[in-house]
Amino acid sequence: MLKFVNNIRVTFNPYGTTASSAKVFLNRIMTNDNIASNPKCKIAVETPDAPDTIPSIQIDFRKHPPLTLPPSMPPFPDPWSLNPGDGKQFAFNTSKMNPNELVGAMTKYTKKLQEEEDNRG
């Protein structure tokens, strides 16, 4: 799940009533298998004590370098399909989402990037 991720920043008040989704998200992504899939992924957890802290998650996906095609190859109709990993950044207000929605959004996008990489060869 973390193969295409550069950074994840999770912010929540550990004593806040709306922090449960952020905590469960961390629990689900910080597994040995996920960390082994991308040891360079940085996971930062910020836990301010301010009661008005809005729990949030920011995910920065890595950007792949563009492909260089041999001149003999015909041009592709969609050049973006050659570059999986667009450096996209997701930001979530976790007080309004359950953990399944958070993990699902991340998984859906990483699967798309994996398919693009597989098609790339």
Rough outline: elongated
Question: What is the number of domains?
Answer: 1
Largest sheet: 4 strands, mixed
Runs in which pLDDT lies below 50 for 5 or more consecutive residues are 65-70, 73-85
User: How many helices does DSSP assign?
Assistant: 3
CATH architecture annotation: 3-Layer(aba) Sandwich
Number of strands: 4
Order of helices and strands: EHHEEEH
Helicity range: 25-40%
Query: Overall mean pLDDT score?
Result: 80
Structural notes for this entry:
With 121 residues, the chain is α+β, with helices and mostly antiparallel strands. The chain has a single domain (5-71, 81-120), classed as Glutaredoxin, CATH 3.40.30. The chain is 31% helix and 19% strand. It has helices at 20-29, 32-37, 99-120, and strands spanning 5-11, 42-46, 56-61, 89-93. A four-stranded mixed beta sheet has the order 2-1-3-4, covered by helices on one side. Helix 1 (20-29) packs parallel to helix 3. The protein is elongated, with a radius of gyration of 17 Å. Mean pLDDT is 80; it is low at 65-70 and 73-85. It is found in: Mitochondrion. This is Large ribosomal subunit protein mL53. Its main location: mitochondrion.
